[in-house]
């Protein structure tokens, strides 16, 4: 759907104190990663560090660089700035970030996939295309014989071979017990020839170029068959001595039992493992008594005052633990030096030591019980269980006595040769080294021991064992030079810091190294730790872990792919956590043979299910040839058969297409590769019944049908020299058949599910156990054509059509009036908000997706509501109708994803993302309804829009009006409010002039009511209107011209009825009248006063009084029963005529002395010090009817700071803002009252009376005193950090707006408008000022 050449961009948001070390983020080379700041970090100084190298530089682990912040808008915004990485290098990369100069406050890892290439042209092999086969290297014969044996993988359709280690093996002959990591196994050289690594490299390159096959091999880091100096021995690891003693005792016990002496002799009675972790009580008490006899005093600096301290013997000798005598002398103090008191004290110490030893006995007893359980489990597995190992019998040999062996502990030259075996521990913490001090794994016999190898002791770094680190790095680099990838053997038991270092060295040799690993951590999060730190490309997953076909189908769905009908994802989208890429194997070389566990007929169906997984898949040599037993990595010494296409099925040393399921596996492998290469990543798994699984990968023929059949080729007989399979079974396969030619199924009737969805029924005829059939399914030809048309128009869509829309058109297109129960808007935004939640998660079960699949109502609705409009809106409607017309012709399951692709679009192209969201928020509020919301403007004005009224059919003005908020004030007489409009509006000329035409009593209306139902009960609306006129004059080019615009007065006199447009007057005369009436004094009673206009108002509240104090210039008025301002106070009125300059001078002189509350006892300006309860604030009013209201802390003074900063003393202003920030600043806005106030209530429960004005601190200064640069930058950062919360709310809100108010702590208020005009507008003003 999207152009293939578009750069894929992922965005990762960073949040404070977020540790992502256990979260997996997978990316591909060629992707761009953008780090952006989350809400908790926006506006703060953040440093981002990464070890991803700069362009042209090589990777160095733990070498970090600081990334630069980029601002794409070129403005000083923080909401779109990002740090960028263009990913061109594979591997694991760490990032972390910090605040200022502080420590880390978050971090994580990125895993970038390698790019694998095959063939002479180096074609890319996607990871999901991989089909791998494992070979036990020792079963390949000499190197010159390898090509014939490896050709089996090529002819079976595999494109990658996994070799077990090619190095010299240890005495056990296990494929993973390496005697020398650097030497090519001499067994691979025939007599008279010496092959080496160079020859291996030539074969690997030949397979890549000529066979299109890549090669990987194992790296084994955690154990070896040699190099005892690098292991855990009884000299460098004395904590293992108790385990060794138990081990030797059990060895003697085993020998005794095997020789029949158990009954007569029993177990050695003097073997006490506790002796290594207990205290010799007798000797300790005697030492203590000797000190008391000498009157020795404790050294308190050494004892620490924490009671009796037992010191563990670092060499773990028998009874070697000691007591810190300073702590003993401090803890057990005799009453005097008398012998009896000393004896009492010694007895107390003895009692305490016996208690300590008892505790140790109890711990060791638990260890012994666990050891016994583990020993029994080992015996059952090795000698009794059907699936067990069946090891060699115990024999009595020439061994030392136990006492003689114990004496060896004291001889370091011999004790250093007693080494700890490697193995693995069921359920253990894989991040802990079980051989290090503090672990009891060896003592408790919890280790599943590999007796042919010892565990390597790397220490914490190369300095702890330089030879070992150097040796293994050379081993790693040699492997990386020869092979295209590595398999980390026993990754969960490999010290992770070792694997990190080695893989970094390997990638320095081969940057696109493919790394796979087996992990048995039992936790996806722990898996992620290894994947993240090591950069693992694929994790081995086993189909044999599934108990039945249903579970196997679940694994197919789990390990990759998207649901059928998934949404088209944009090229720029959030980076979301991933699961590790899987290498899904039908069998691994460690698994038991499925023929033994299940049935031979299970082989082909299980392989078919695995091959349909949208990930790497594979198998182990022998599975396809139906070898009926596990090919042991330890005991198997026979060789694999060679490829011979003309061989007989019964030929044990040769493999042909008819051998086992070879032909079927080839078809499955090629199908798997084809699906992945063509990008079919959608997967659907259907459990048809208990025995049949159907897997769909979105791609009218039968690709192939295959079933296992018996043949007369003799029964299986194990060959002594060659690993042979069961000759009595083969695969009957047919490929590329017409449906009617199939022998397994027959076509049934074709039924129609809709206009373009046809169902072909099929009837199973010979789908016998062991069968697999693959259908290639395609859309109906007409539907294919329609999909092609849809894709063409979606990629060719031009934004020119949208650019012709006016803001009011966009309001209709996107928002209009909420009309559905589940959608916030009847316009497209209602759907877009919901689809934005559905798309990232492919939530195809959402009710909206269900509605789209069920019928065409929603498709018709989005276009029909627009085609009836005029102009560009009708054109948009026609385009949508055309697209939805095509959409109706595709299968219903595809409609949700294509419907989403049609609707997704950006309507604001410029500015930061926060600006875009706010701009869309402004479009919500500006619109034209069915009825005019504004009174008529002067007929002499130019460019006034007209229309034929949809109700009257008459020509009428259709000016854009501004809704106060949604959903409560969307339409009708309650849509427009004076105060709300002009707080939210900076200079929409028609609205300024419309309200000017309704001036009455020197006031503009609070509730406009289309002018005819206006209410003049608001003192401050006229001042917001005047501020808006001033903004227009100062910010719009030729803004002064507005003062000359004609205003048609609806109320030429205060007492007249509403008039039609008639005689005009210039706007400046209307302004003069408003100011003059204030100086003269305003006093009237609202018309129609009574419950018919406001049933909640007291009668006195309908009386409106406004005046100007001649001494201070302050506007006063109102009473306690009405709402003259949005937070009203009452003052007195005195009539006097003064000039504007005098009025300004009075305000300037009186403001600080009247409003500043210093809190100082001798402040001469303070008239009511008894009411002061907050210092360093500005009063909310002066001369209120209730004097205490003057001293309430409210946010109103911050508004005055914005519009008239010259009134404020700078020092006072900073102090007041600090108090306000501490007391009033909330989640999205300001508290309307100090929480310390006795009448404070943080939860609002009345829908209309008390709106919360969302101020963004008001720190930005238009003019007035200049801030210092440091103060300015600090303030700007604080403002930006606060605004990040609004950004987050806008992104997440389905209303795509900011609320009118919230309850305390930012909680949702059900009585608030979900999106409010002034909330959006004031944030836009802050951004404009920034």
From TrEMBL:
SUPFAM superfamilies: (Trans)glycosidases, Six-hairpin glycosidases. GO terms for biological process: glycogen catabolic process. One of its GO terms (molecular function) is amylo-alpha-1,6-glucosidase activity. Residues 124-278, 312-514 form the Glycogen debranching enzyme glucanotransferase domain. Residues 697-866 form the Glycogen debranching enzyme central domain. Residues 33-118 form the Eukaryotic glycogen debranching enzyme N-terminal domain. Residues 954-1130, 1135-1325 form the Glycogen debranching enzyme C-terminal domain. It comes from the Eukaryota. It holds the Pfam family hDGE_amylase. This is 4-alpha-glucanotransferase. It comes from Muraenolepis orangiensis. The lineage of its organism: Eukaryota, Metazoa, Chordata, Craniata, Vertebrata.
């Amino acid at each position: 759907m999207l152009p293939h050449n578009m750069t894929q961009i992922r965005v990762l948001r960073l949040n404070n104190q977020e540790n992502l070390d256990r979260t997996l983020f997978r990316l591909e080379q060629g992707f761009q990663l953008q780090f952006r700041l989350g809400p908790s970090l926006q506006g703060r100084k953040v440093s981002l560090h990464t070890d991803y190298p700069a362009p042209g530089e090589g990777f160095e682990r733990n070498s970090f660089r600081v990334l630069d912040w980029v601002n794409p808008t070129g403005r000083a915004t923080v909401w779109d700035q990002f740090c960028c990485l263009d990913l061109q290098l594979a591997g694991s990369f760490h990032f972390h970030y910090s605040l200022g100069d502080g420590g880390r406050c978050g971090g994580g890892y990125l895993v970038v996939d390698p790019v694998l290439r095959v063939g002479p042209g180096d074609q890319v092999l996607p990871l999901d295309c991989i089909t791998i086969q494992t070979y036990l290297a020792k079963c390949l014969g000499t190197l010159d014989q390898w090509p014939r044996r490896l050709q089996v993988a090529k002819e079976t359709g595999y494109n990658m071979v996994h070799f077990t280690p090619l190095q010299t093996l240890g005495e056990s002959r296990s494929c993973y017990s390496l005697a020398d990591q650097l030497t090519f196994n001499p067994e691979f050289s025939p007599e008279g020839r010496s092959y080496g690594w160079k020859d291996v490299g030539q074969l690997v390159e030949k397979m890549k170029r000529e066979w299109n096959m890549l090669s990987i091999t194992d790296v084994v880091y955690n154990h070896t068959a040699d190099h005892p100096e690098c292991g855990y021995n009884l000299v460098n690891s004395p904590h293992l001595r108790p385990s060794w003693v138990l081990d030797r005792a059990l060895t003697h016990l085993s020998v005794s039992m095997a020789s029949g002496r158990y009954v007569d002799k029993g177990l050695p009675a003097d073997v006490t493992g506790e002796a290594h972790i207990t205290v010799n009580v007798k000797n300790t008490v005697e030492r203590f008594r000797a000190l008391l006899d000498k009157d020795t005093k404790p050294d308190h600096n050494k004892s620490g005052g924490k009671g009796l301290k037992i010191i563990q013997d670092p060499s773990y000798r028998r009874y070697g633990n000691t007591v810190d005598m300073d702590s003993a002398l401090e803890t057990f103090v005799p009453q005097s030096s008398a012998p009896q008191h000393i004896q009492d004290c010694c007895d107390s110490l003895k009692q305490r030591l016996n208690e300590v030893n008892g505790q140790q006995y109890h711990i060791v007893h638990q260890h012994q019980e666990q050891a016994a359980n583990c020993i029994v489990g080992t015996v059952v597995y090795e000698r009794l269980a059907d699936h067990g190992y069946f090891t060699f019998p115990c024999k009595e040999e020439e061994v030392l006595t136990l006492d003689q062996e114990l004496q060896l502990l004291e001889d370091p030259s011999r004790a250093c040769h007693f080494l700890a075996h490697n193995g693995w521990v069921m359920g253990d913490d894989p991040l802990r080294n079980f051989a290090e001090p503090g672990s009891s794994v060896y003592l408790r016999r919890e280790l599943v021991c590999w007796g042919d190898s010892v565990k390597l002791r790397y220490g914490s770094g190369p300095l702890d064992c330089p030879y070992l680190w150097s040796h293994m790095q050379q081993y790693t680099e040699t492997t990386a030079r020869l092979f295209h990838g590595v398999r980390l053997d026993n990754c969960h038991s490999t010290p992770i810091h070792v694997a990190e270092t080695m893989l970094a060295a390997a990638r320095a040799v081969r940057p696109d190294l493919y790394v796979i690993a087996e992990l048995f951590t039992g936790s996806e999060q722990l898996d992620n730790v290894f994947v993240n730190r090591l950069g693992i490309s694929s994790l081995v997953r086993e189909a044999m872990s599934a108990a039945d076909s249903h579970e196997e189908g679940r694994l197919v769905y789990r390990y990759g792919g998207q649901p059928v009908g998934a949404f088209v994802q944009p090229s720029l989208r959030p980076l979301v956590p991933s699961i590790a890429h899987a290498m899904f194997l039908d069998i691994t070389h460690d698994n038991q043979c499925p023929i033994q566990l299940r049935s031979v007929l299970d082989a082909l169906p299980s392989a078919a299910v695995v091959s349909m997984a949208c990930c790497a898949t594979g198998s182990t040599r022998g599975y396809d040839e139906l070898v009926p037993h596990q090919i042991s990595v330890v005991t198997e010494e026979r060789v694999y058969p060679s490829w011979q296409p003309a061989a007989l099925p019964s030929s044990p040393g040769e493999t042909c297409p008819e051998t086992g399921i070879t032909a079927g596996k080839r078809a499955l492998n090629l199908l798997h590769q084809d699906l992945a290469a063509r990008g079919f990543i959608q997967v659907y798994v259907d459990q048809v019944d208990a025995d049949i699984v159907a897997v769909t990968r979105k791609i009218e023929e039968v690709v192939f049908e295959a079933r296992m059949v018996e043949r007369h080729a003799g029964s299986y007989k194990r060959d002594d020299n060659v690993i042979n399979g069961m000759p009595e079974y083969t695969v009957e396969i047919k490929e590329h058949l017409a449906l009617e030619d199939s022998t397994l199924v027959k076509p049934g009737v074709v039924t129609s599910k809709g206009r373009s969805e046809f169902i072909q029924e099929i009837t199973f005829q010979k789908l016998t156990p062991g069968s697999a059939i693959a259908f290639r399914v395609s859309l109906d030809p007409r539907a294919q054509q329609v999909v092609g048309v849809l894709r063409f128009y979606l990629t060719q869509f031009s934004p020119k059509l949208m650019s012709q829309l006016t803001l009011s058109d966009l309001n209709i297109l996107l928002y209009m009036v909420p009309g559905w129960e589940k959608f916030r808007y009847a316009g497209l935004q209602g759907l877009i908000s919901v689809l934005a939640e559905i798309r990232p998660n492919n939530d195809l079960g959402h009710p909206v997706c269900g509605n789209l699949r069920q019928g065409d109502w929603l498709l018709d609705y989005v276009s029909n509501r627009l085609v009836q409009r005029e102009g560009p809106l009708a054109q948009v409607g026609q385009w949508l109708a055309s697209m939805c017309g095509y959409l109706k012709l595709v299968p219903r399951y595809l409609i949700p994803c294509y419907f989403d692709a049609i609707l997704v679009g950006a309507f604001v192209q410029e500015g930061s993302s926060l600006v875009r969201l706010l701009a869309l928020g402004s479009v919500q509020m500006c619109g034209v309804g069915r009825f005019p919301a504004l009174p008529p403007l002067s007929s002499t004005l130019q460019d006034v829009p007209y229309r034929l009224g949809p109700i009257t059919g008459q020509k009428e003005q259709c000016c854009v009006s501004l809704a106060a908020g949604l959903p409560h004030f969307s339409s009708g007489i309650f849509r427009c409010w004076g105060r709300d409009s002009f707080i939210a509006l900076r200079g929409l000329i028609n609205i300024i002039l419309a309200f000017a035409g309704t001036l009455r009593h020197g006031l503009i209306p609070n509730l406009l009511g289309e002018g005819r139902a206006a209410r003049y009960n608001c003192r401050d609306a006229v001042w917001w209107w005047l501020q808006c006129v001033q903004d227009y004059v100062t910010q719009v080019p030729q803004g002064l011209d507005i003062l000359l615009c004609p205003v048609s007065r609806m109320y030429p006199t205060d007492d007249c009825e509403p008039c039609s447009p008639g005689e005009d007057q210039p706007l400046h005369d209307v302004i003069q009248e408003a100011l003059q009436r204030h100086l003269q004094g305003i006093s009237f009673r609202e018309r129609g006063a009574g419950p018919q206009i406001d049933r909640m108002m007291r009668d006195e509240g309908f009386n409106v009084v406004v005046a100007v104090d001649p001494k201070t210039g302050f506007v006063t008025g109102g009473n306690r029963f009405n709402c003259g301002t949005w937070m009203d106070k009452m003052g007195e009125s005195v009539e006097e005529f003064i000039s504007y300059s005098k009025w300004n001078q009075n305000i300037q002189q009186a403001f600080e002395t009247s409003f500043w509350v210093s809190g100082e006892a001798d402040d001469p300006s303070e008239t009511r010090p008894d009411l002061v309860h907050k210092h360093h604030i500005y009063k909310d009013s002066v001369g209120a009817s209730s004097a205490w209201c003057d001293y309430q802390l409210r946010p109103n003074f911050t508004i005055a700071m914005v519009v008239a900063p010259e009134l404020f003393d700078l020092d006072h202003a900073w102090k007041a803002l600090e108090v306000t920030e501490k007391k009033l600043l909330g989640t999205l806005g300001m508290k309307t009252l100090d929480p310390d106030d006795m009448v404070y209530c943080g939860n609002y429960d009345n829908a209309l009376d008390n709106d919360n004005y969302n101020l963004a601190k008001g720190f930005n200064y238009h003019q007035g005193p200049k801030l210092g640069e440091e103060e300015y930058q600090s303030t700007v950062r604080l403002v930006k950090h606060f605004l990040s919360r609004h950004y987050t709310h806008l992104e997440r809100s389905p209303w795509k707006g900011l609320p009118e108010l919230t309850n305390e702590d930012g909680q949702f208020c059900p009585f608030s408008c979900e999106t409010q005009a002034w909330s959006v507008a004031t944030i836009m003003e802050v951004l404009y000022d920034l």
